[in-house]
């Protein structure tokens, strides 16, 4: 199971690819790649969307993830920013759908709650828990990358619950 | 000069393709095609975005427009609806950018002002003026299609102004 987590943004989109080797007894979650897709603020929105789409397609081609776990963007305070984010999220969803991936969407607070245990966790707390859950020597940098990884973890940790319950 | 006008929506996206035969003495604007791209409400957002993207790409392949004229969506009252619209608009901008088209964006009121003469024009007034400017026997149906055509006309009528001024 390979999950691509994405924290969409227009200037910077964080992403993380996490695998779950379910066959192994423990420590089965591992980080494959994470980073940030940046687009140039001086470019027009359509040019930036094109760059974001191409990068996401390249990540999908590289790792062939089964699932896209992505933050919802319906909760921001500034309408204009949120709508621009909607554009970015639209091309990410398009790229995932074109590759036949399953798509899971989470409100930011739910991702934090699953990964850190608190819906109002700080970015630093998310970085810390991401590093801990994946046994990394240092936290993913910058925080956008950690947020992308956290989205992937939210899917994998949530998807595990029914499995554990069945074992009991 | 071929212009593709688009009025983005998630359920229904209106479009119109209009040409400007600048060499001809008068009546040089003509409608090539207009219609509505519909997606199924029962499908998930990503499936609908994929359908919209494919249809827009098909229209671009068919007519090879030079310009995309598209409504801004930053002015709606309902945030959630506007953000979902942002997703749709994102994949339309992506398709246009991938084809190297010039992109012109207009607030809805500016399109109405240019085509009808009043920023608060009704949908029926837009239909009427679209039919009149393009010498159509009947108004484009439904109103979404007329709104797509109106966006294309807004570009062509605005682009003409400097040309006329130079003639004077």
In words, what does this structure look like?
The structure is a homodimer of 168-residue chains. By secondary structure, chain A is of the alpha/beta class. Chain A has a single domain (2-159), classed as 2-Layer Sandwich (Nucleotidyltransferase, domain 5). Helix content of chain A is 49%, strand content 21%. Chain A has 5 helices and 5 strands, in the order βββαβαβααα. The first copy, chain A, has helices spanning 45-63, 79-98, 108-115, 123-133, 143-167; strands at 2-7, 12-20, 29-38, 67-71, 102-106. A 5-stranded mixed beta sheet of chain A has the order 3-2-1-4-5. In chain A, helix 1 (45-63) runs parallel beside helix 2 (79-98) and helix 3 (108-115) packs across helix 5. The first copy, chain A, starts with a strand and ends with a helix. The model of chain A is unreliable at 162-168 (pLDDT under 50). At the A-B interface, helix 1 and helix 2 of A face helix 1 and helix 2 of B.
Features:
5 strands, alpha/beta, homodimer, disordered C terminus, Nucleotidyltransferase, domain 5, 5 helices, 5-stranded mixed beta sheet, 168 residues
